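ESCALATION

Customer reports they have been waiting on this structure for their group meeting. Please prioritize. Original submission:
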Amino acid sequence: MRTTLQFSLVGALLLSACGGSTAAAPNVLFIVTDTLRADRLGCYGSDAGLTPYLDQLAAEGLRFSDASSHAPWTLPSIASMLTSLHPAEHGAGGSLGGFKLMDPGVTTLPAVFKGRGWRTHAIANVAFLGEAFGTTRDFETTDIVAPTSNLEMRVAGATTQAALDWLDKRDERPFFLFVHYFDPHAVYAPPDPFRERFASGVDESFVFGTRQQMMDLRAGRLNVPDGVIRRAERLYNGEVAYMDAQIGRLLDGLSARGLDESTVVLVTADHGEEFLDHGGYEHGHTLYRELIHVPLILRYPGRIIPGVNTMSVAHVDLAPTLCELADIAPPEQFLGQSLLRSATGASDSEPRPILAHGNMWGEPLTSWRKGRYALIVGTGGRQELYDLESDPLQGRDLAQEMPDKVTELRRSLDRVQLALGALHKGQTLDLAPEVLESLKEFGYVGGE
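Update from on-call: job pushed to the front of the queue and completed.
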């Protein structure tokens, strides 16, 4: 029997128990923080005091403790958020040797909202979110600042002000506002008092993390002592704290304008950052958890039950979630699952597999996480296996000790990649039972 892959939307309802109503179309404030490690947030376990405003947002909303990005760098990651597709399917990504724009044929989340009457606007601070790469092409208006040097970024204060100014000039339509903060990205240069509080003693002449330095580092032309990385990490913490304060100012501004009760607020990060966790620095070069584990917080007063959810979720789930909150039928292209199942108190009986791939700096990498185990594969036969329950920091490669588990995960990964590739090309598949079962487990097929 020939079976066509169909998107399966989770049958979740808004919270009638909380008196919620879908009568009025909600606004959406979609905040993406660049380069933010989940473990820097207090609500994710940090005791450094960097993120009081995001911690408060998490207390008021639903925090997903096990959320993942699909790529370790900005372009493919944010494209996945806005298309509910993986990098191999939406096309945006490539590597330093040749970047690739997003497939012009895929449907984007802003196009869906714009088509249903929302006023859509994007504020972003990197070229990858500009017109050339296609990621923000379907927003009604954009405010993209793309400096030629990462020493000249638009800082969080100016980004927040741009968002508040836009809110004051908007028309009466419901809005979909996408705001991208760049500050925790190298080069780290937090302003006072954040520099003084979190990086006191680091000379202001200290500059590390320029694009040329990163290219030299990857090419082996730059030897960086551990102390240099640790100084950079302290400045990174200051940037996180500064950005958090500005996100707080934006949320306060939303409230002052009487919009917080009618606005869905979603906060996540495109990826994390490495500080010698696996012997490296920055991002875009591995698929370990310090780069793939991201914060994810969802707040909608009176609609979403505040709390913590431990289910495995990923960025492909964001677009279907926002569609369902806005009572919009998502396009069949969207491969993720709505997170409203969690909003109504339900949970997955089995953890969902999570797929990630991409490498900005070197050989292509793919990770396939299924339950407690994470497999990372590369070219030339490279295979690594980690038990995330006993070894969440991925310090012990079990590939040699557990070859049967490697084979099992590799086979399911190959089946899913084959099926997703065919789906992206619009093909109808003759699905073998084991392939169909793998895709059902992944959450991409439902019903009969």
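Sent to customer with the following note: The first strand starts at residue 27 and ends at 33.
Escalation resolved.
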